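Appendix B, record 7
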Amino acid sequence: MSKDYVVVTTVSSFRQRYVMHKDDLRKLNSDVEPSNHELSDWAGDTVTCEECDEFSQQHIGEQIFDVYECTEEEMLTFFDRDNDYLSGWERDQKIKWVRDTITRTKIGTHE
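Structure tokens (predicted):
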């Protein structure tokens, strides 16, 4: 089988920032008077537990993890695994979607 497809795997990084007031952190555990160090720990825990909304974010960049060639059958296997909600599409529809990715993202085109 011919290896007609190229797969590029990337990792995209973002910097997120969270900001909270110390008084609001104290309210989370009002029966203890925390030190500043403990408040910092509580702030980290609050973010980890997703109990605070994001203040801001900045896209840092995208790094290429690997690049390799694959067959159409391998690409279709990736398609179904990575996009399981589209796995019911017909084979030709999946191939057309992949073949159109370059067209959909041409520089200067905002469709």
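Remarks on this record: Helices lie at 22-28, 36-48, 72-82, 91-99, 101-104. The CA atoms of residues 79 and 98 lie 9 Å apart.
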